[in-house]
Amino acid sequence: MLRFVVVRGVLMWGICTAVIFTAIQVLQHHEVGTLDVARNIGTFMVGGIFWGATMWWLSGRKKGKS
């Protein structure tokens, strides 16, 4: 479970979402500094923990019902 949460949640979802979010901010002509990028990455990595854990839990429920 821990590996799934870290790899799929934190690294894949968290960092990818942070990059997309930052790109949207830049495209909307917001001033985005290094601190903003770091804050986005940190925030979405924490969100990735919850996303990964939720996906793990939902997949476990689905397997149990089959």
Automatic annotation (TrEMBL):
Keyword annotations of the record: Membrane, Transmembrane, Transmembrane helix
Membrane-spanning parts: 7-28, 40-58
Protein name, UniProt field: Uncharacterized protein
Organism taxonomic ancestry: Bacteria, Pseudomonadati, Pseudomonadota, Betaproteobacteria, Burkholderiales
